[in-house]
Write a structure and sequence with these properties.
The chain is elongated, with a radius of gyration of 17 Å. The longest helix is centred in the last third of the chain and has 32 residues, at about 135-165. With about 170 residues, the protein is an all-alpha fold. The termini are far apart. Helix 4 (about 50-65) packs across helix 9. The protein is built from nine helices and no strands.
Length: about 170
């Protein structure tokens, strides 16, 4: 899958030279850092002990919980293109039914961090370490889980500005 130059612009279908494009270009560092964080958190050259598919599953899970269908579709496409059908099914299962295995543990961690970060316990971190995750891995997935709601809020704000400009 070819990644766009800027995920947010692509999801919004933002036309180059539009008023909103001009507004975003006033803060090139914010735009560059958001895109860089997306690439580094989802598709780092060295993913450590958390695969690209697991990262996409975590991002999909949070996007679904946050209710952004367009962003969720983008993360779903990453898993589909990676032929990670089982990973996709687990990430989309929001039923809360108990499941066993590494990915369900990661997804439950994402659910807690995204919804109630203060409820994260030392036992959660110990469980992740027991699955072979290093402190670097835990920081990376926690950053990813926190990054997706930022993307959702950014998209919501820019969509509102686009609707206001169209009215």
């Amino acid at each position: 899958m070819n990644e766009p130059e800027d995920l947010i612009d692509d999801l919004l279908g933002m036309a180059p030279g539009s008023p909103l494009d001009a507004l975003r270009r006033q803060r090139p560092e914010a735009r560059r850092h958001a895109q860089g964080a997306y690439r580094e958190l989802l598709m780092p050259d060295d993913p450590g002990n958390v695969s690209h598919a697991e990262r996409a599953a975590l991002a999909l899970r949070v996007a679904l919980r946050e209710g952004d269908a367009d962003l969720a579709a983008r993360y779903r496409a990453l898993l589909t293109n990676a032929d990670a059908e089982e990973t996709l099914m687990l990430a989309e299962d929001l039923s809360g039914d108990p499941m066993e295995g590494r990915l369900p543990v990661l997804l439950r961690y994402a659910d807690v961090v995204a919804a109630r970060p203060e409820a994260t316990t030392q036992a959660d971190l110990d469980t992740l370490r027991g699955m072979g995750l290093t402190p670097r891995d835990v920081v990376a997935i926690t950053q990813l889980i926190a990054f997706v709601p930022y993307q959702v809020r950014l998209l919501a704000g820019l969509r509102a500005l686009m609707q206001e400009a169209a009215a």
